[in-house]
Amino acid sequence: MNDSFLFAEEKPADKVVKQLPPYRILIVDDDEEIHVITKMALNDFQLNQRGLQFVSAYSGEEAQQLLSEQHDFALVLLDVVMETDHAGLDVARWIRETLNNRLIRIVLRTGQPGQAPEEDIIARYEIDDYKEKTELTYRKLVTLMYSSLRAYRELCRIERNRSALEHIIKASAQLFSASSVRELSRGILEQLVVLMTHADTAAYCAVDGITASGAEPGNLQVLAGVGQYQAEEGQRLQQQVDHQVIKRLIAENKSVSFVLHQEDYYGLYHTRGGRYYLLFIQGIVKNSDDPGLADSDQNLLALFMNNTAIAFEHAEQYQ
Fold this sequence. Notes:
β8 (about 255-260) and β9 (about 265-270) form a beta hairpin. The chain has a five-stranded parallel beta sheet, sandwiched between helices. α2 (about 60-70) runs parallel beside α3 and α6 (about 180-195) packs antiparallel against α8. The chain has eight helices and ten strands. Residues about 1-15 and about 170-175 have low confidence and may be disordered. About 40% of the residues lie in helices and about 20% in strands. It has two domains: about 15-150, 3-Layer(aba) Sandwich (Rossmann fold); about 175-319, Beta-Lactamase (2-Layer Sandwich). The radius of gyration is 24 Å and the shape is elongated.
């Protein structure tokens, strides 16, 4: 094995940041050494503050079992020759045609020169790359991770956009029922989160029971949610938010105020009628050189809070 495969350059210590869920990588190879070396080489890899979590399979059959049970793999590093000379190609075909998974990225690897698949196979099964194991140095392996995971991330964004548009189209049939406004708001919120951040978890809440000291825990009712918050729509927010941050925003006494706190977005909208609405986006990851939100992003989020508040208040009048 190439020594550069084993040893990465030392990196300066990063500042402590909130831990984001890792990208899950499936290594499929009948050679245990390949699993060990791949994990060692990529142990410190991160993309947008998300690390890697590795899962190992040692045959095509085992890989299919794992992929059928777990649907959140971002990338599969797939050996061509395992229990048969074409086991890896069979898995690639199964992923695209039987499992119908178009999001996961597939990288074929082989230790046998001359085993490269035909060009039509690479095109048909959307195989991202093909590498001989001897050429996968540390640097090339890291570059492969960046390109493959960025492609996966963008495909996921496109899929969420498609899902969000479905919500908007369904909601347009009955505009002013509470359920349709929630559906419409969720669809727009999904679009905003995808366009502006690398997050996929957000909640738009009514803030009830404001006292002189601000909002107390239990006063946030989820009107529209994305990701884990979708299951809480119509209920009190159960997930952890920092109520001291909300109190500070209330104390500013502005129609729209926001803050980025520990990589989470808190946006508060105060209506002319005296009601408060909170937009909470969890895990915003911005460029380290520009940790803020662009003016255009801020304006869009403020417009969303304003128009959604109007829509929900109108819906209450029609109930």
